[in-house]
Amino acid sequence: MAITDWPEDERPRERLLAQGAAALSDAELLAIFLRVGVKGKSAVDLARDLVARFGGLNRLFAASSTELSTVHGIGPAKYVQLQAVLEMSRRALAEEMTQGSAFASPGAVRDFLRLHLAGLPHEVFFALWLDAQNRLIAAEELFRGTLTQTSVYPREVVKKALLHNAAAVVLAHNHPSGLCEASRADELLTRELKQALALVDVRVLDHFIVAGQSPPLSFAERGLL
Question: Is the pTM here over 0.85, yes or no?
Answer without folding.
Answer: no
